[in-house]
Request: fold
Amino acid sequence: MTPQDASIKTAEVCGLAPVVPVLVVNDVAHARPLAEALVAGGLPALEVTLRTPVALDVIAEMAKVEGGVVGAGTLLTPADVKAAVAAGAKFGVSPGATDTLLDACEAADLPLLAGTSTASDVMRLLERGYTVAKFFPAEANGGAPALKAIGAPLPQMKFCPTGGISLKNADDYLSLSNTLCVGGSWVAPNDLVQKGDWKAIEELAREAAALSR
Ligand code: 3PG
Reply:
């Protein structure tokens, strides 16, 4: 998959809803009901981070949920890419971008939302042919003002900022011309997941899905 085709795909994923939930799931039994609640609430694109031992099984379970588009986050190595594709991930997300990781995703036909945090990061991805990226960690990097400033000289790159975003500040990003959607964990807080309070999570998703962009 070319970087251009990958960018078309990641733009489609980012276009599904204003928020992509970033999920850290510790129990495979939570996968189906959690994905069902988020999709029912209007958030079909889901990022499952590869940060728990069961993450690949969680992706496989969530991939069965109708209406969901499940991706794998925290991709760091070619082995991660291979495992994510085998589990059924439809897109990948990484905190940064190395040539090794980009090569692996392109070879595996996995559209990657690669992480950037500086103008040079963005320029490197643009040189390679990518026009959609993650901005991470968004708040710690200067937040929406920083992303807006990067967009002045580099308007051709569109972003999914992630890291420190919540219902309170999501609008600051979503109102920018270079932001397609935001990523965040706030729609699936750990305490609600542990309690199995899927109704409350569906409500948080609904609130997030109603954000305008
Ligand atoms: C992460 O690193 O887990 C994601 O960027 C989500 O960050 P958040 O928990 O601040 O939403």
Observations:
- Residues 22, 136, 162-165, 183-186 surround 3-phosphoglyceric acid (CB under 6 Å).
- Residues 3-15 form the longest helix (13 residues).
